[in-house]
Hints:
By secondary structure, this protein is an all-beta fold. It has strands at residues 9-14, 18-21, 46-48, 56-60, 68-71, 74-78, 87-92, 95-99, 105-110, 114-117, 123-126, 136-139, 145-157, 169-176, 187-192, 196-199.
Amino acid sequence: KGHLTISKAEVTLASASLTKEYDGTALKNSDAESLGVEVNENGLQTESGWAEGEGADYSFTGSQTLVGNSANAFTYTLNEGTKAENYTISKTEGTLTVKNRDAKYEVTITANSYEGTYDGESHTASGFEGEEDGKVAVTAGNGLTYYVSGLTSEAAGKDVADSVSEIAVTGTANVKDADGNDVTADFDVKVTKGHLTISKAEVTLASAS
C-alpha cells in the first residue's frame, strides 16, 4: 500500500548583530538600517522556510545602552492559519554591541574662586560652580546630563601673599549618567582652575591742621 508523508518544513529565523559607539541611547534592532545593516521588512536578517501565505509576527526586545553586549532578542507569534506542528523552527539571536567612543565627549567644570581685599580674616575658595552633594552636572555633546565627581579644588588665605593664581585640582574625575552608571571611559573632563586673590587694603592717614 502507498502512504502519504508530509515532513515538517524547516524555518530559519535570525536577528542581526549590530554595533555602535556609546552615545547614551539604547541600541535596538530598529537601528539596523541607520547602521547600514540589511534586514527584511519584518526586521530579521534571515527569515526563510515559511509556506506561501504563512509566517509570524515578531517583537524585538533586545536593548543595549552601556558599553558591553547582549542578545538582539526577539519573540514571534505564529500568524492565524500557521500551525506550529508543520514546522521545525530554528531561531538565532544576533548580538547588540556598544563600544567605547573613539572621540570622547569633552566636558568642562569650573572651580570656584575668591577675590577680595585684605580684612584680617581668612577666606577660602573651594569646590566647583554648580556643585551639589559633591557632583557637578554637565551636558555632553549628545545633549544628555551627566554628573562629574571625584575632584577637589581648595585654597585658603588671609594675607596678600597667600594669593594663588591657579588653585591645584586633585583627585580623579568620575562621570556617571542620570541612572548612576559609570561612563567615565567615554569622557574627557577638563577643569577651568579657580584662583584666590587677596588685594591690598588701602589705608589713609592724615594729621590734623
